[in-house]
Design a protein that fits this description.
Largest sheet: 3 strands, antiparallel
Number of strands: 3
Order of helices and strands: HHHHHEEHEHH
Strand order of the largest sheet: 1-2-3
Structural class: mainly alpha
Number of helices: 8
Shape: elongated
Radius of gyration: 19 Å
Distance between the termini: 38 Å
Length: 192
């Protein structure tokens, strides 16, 4: 008789588990790419930008810090709307990442991977007698693939913004067209 494995629900749903892992761990890559958008507006002072952004304990505060450090520059270049769109997308990525990172996962026999996001429960004002009666949510490969595409598109948009600011500052020869986004934040939320 074999002993139970840690996170055995992920063993039963390996492709889903791989994408969840990439989303949870990969969020930091998006955050670093976002931070890079604040370098040019701060004279490429990496030490200052890095410590300002990562001196913040919470991811939401990091997004706000980058916004405060860089929005005037992106406004000056006429691309503030794209910068704000990118930060909104980062915030959506943060919410997805947190809902998966702070969750209880299990195989409920439905053929889909079930999870319960814990953060919203902790914020409830009513009495919580346990987790068993709470409404579970499900993920499948289609949803996770679309979320991964959203993460990839968000990183592409942040990279484009960084290069575009450098191009407009005559520090980079040229920049390609703004990348197309496969899903808007609203469209992605409708899939959940």
């Amino acid at each position: 008789m074999s002993s139970p494995q840690f996170m055995d629900s992920f063993v039963s749903f390996k492709p889903e588990a791989e994408l969840i892992g990439r989303i949870v761990v990969g969020y930091t890559q998006i955050e670093i790419t976002m931070m890079n958008c604040a370098l040019l507006p701060n004279n490429d002072n990496f030490d200052h930008v890095f410590k300002s952004v990562y001196g913040e304990r919470f991811s939401k505060n990091r997004i706000n810090t980058v916004s405060n450090m860089a929005k005037d520059t992106y406004d000056k270049f006429g691309i503030l709307d794209v910068f704000l769109e990118a930060l909104s997308r980062v915030d959506e990525c943060r919410e997805i990442r947190n809902s998966y990172a702070h969750a209880n996962w299990w195989n409920d026999g439905s053929g889909r991977l079930a999870f319960l996001s814990l953060d919203p429960l902790a914020k409830r004002k009513d009495h919580l007698p346990g987790l068993g009666s709470e409404e579970r949510r499900y993920v499948d490969l289609d949803l996770l693939t679309r979320q991964m595409e959203f993460f990839q598109d968000t990183e592409s948009l942040l990279n484009w913004l960084n290069v575009e600011a450098r191009h407009q500052s005559n520090l980079h020869k040229e920049n390609g067209p703004k990348p197309a986004m496969r899903l808007t934040t609203t469209e992605l939320r409708a899939l959940r």
